[in-house]
Amino acid sequence: MKQRIFSALLALLLPLAGCYSRPQTANNPDTSKTDNPPPRAHARSAGAGGGFDFYLLNLSWSPEFCHSHPNAAECAVHANFILHGLWPQNDNGSYPENCSNDPGPADPTQYKDIYLDQGLLAHEWKTHGTCSGLNADNFFNAARTAFHSVAIPHALSGLTAQISLPPEQILGDFTAANPNIPRASLALSCGNNYLTAIEVCLDKSLHPIACPSVRSCRANTVRIPPP
User: Fold this and answer.
1) For the whole model, what pTM was predicted?
2) CB–CB of 195/64 below 8 Å?
């Protein structure tokens, strides 16, 4: 009798077991960094090109980019901020990727002013540009316009020695240099207490908007090595 009761209870409980499985999280290598909550640590979303809410313009601080990509073509020019990408994002924190197999620009070299590394250009088109709803030339022209619309503060454009600054001061310098970009449109990314990028939230017409789901570096200060 006891065995029959146990078997009946087991039969009832087994179908429910899957309801209490551990939820999966996005595989993001930066989640272990306590000083920098990853701004894009959210699930990818499927969807056709153009099906997104806003753009995230990512300007990488060249010395940190070159620290992890020493052979990149951009590193030979010793720039300060370089264009990493113009990324379609969603308000809920998800982001589309690899939306189609549409070809990239017929002449990628015409974008050498923003992408010296043609491999990075190809990656940005395939991963992000195909989700923009634009053809390749229109997408990279939009990326160029967005990149050149952001003025770099003098304190960072002429840096000759490593300095340390609070993230809020850096973002304040950016708003001072760019009166048309509200503080709410900016985020700062860091890793191991080094500045890695400045990010700007833009609408589909490339106008600054308040960032709905992008978090900033929480370090007290970040180190900024010179180009």
Assistant:
1) 0.78
2) yes
